[in-house]
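Changelog-adjacent note: as of this version, every example in the card shows the full chain rather than a window. The one below runs 223 residues end to end.
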Amino acid sequence: MFDDIQAAIPLGFFLAFMIGPVFFVLIETSVTKGFRAAVIFDLGVIIADIIFIGVAYFSSFQLLENLSNQPGLYVFGGTILAVYGLIIFLKKPKRNDLKAQLSNSFKVNYIELFIKGFLLNFINVGVLIFWLGIIIVTGPSLENDINRFYVFFGSLIVAYFITDLFKILLAKQLKKQLTPKIILKIKKLLGIILLICGLVLITKGFLPKDKLNPQTIIEEIRE
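Full-length structure tokens:
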């Protein structure tokens, strides 16, 4: 059991630094809205991950193959992400709203942030395929023991979350350097990043099926 925990912690640390839309939105949330807001957002992301892990565990390699043969799921998720990024980029927030974000009295809608984190992760079918691949790869070493599964993935999620807390704390320190102009630039940059991530997902949906082959995905994970 200790070996399972020891193996899960580095993977959780690695996952916390995977570059994707969630990574950038988490940093932006911490910088512009503060520590608590970023934690709530991150909890939404983690709940989506836990659901994906559960679905992945109770499914099989066949589900992975079926998902890879449904490129429309990539296009759907990518389109939502790209549109969201475009809206952020084109939106022109009022200067007073930007100033309000720098004040300690700025009110944050935590429920909205939680849902935002959950949906941002949940619409990305690539995340589900990733967890399916991880389970297929690690399943034999865990001897398909449900208790070892709980220990391994529980430790992984905890390590992931703790690493995110450090990221949030470090990003929060930047708030002292912010001005309304800088916040606007951060939001524009975030919009561009989300738009690019959405276009990448859409592109995956139009790739030949052999490019979405489960075996290829698993081999990439192993590497």
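Structural remarks: DSSP finds eleven helices and no strands in the chain.
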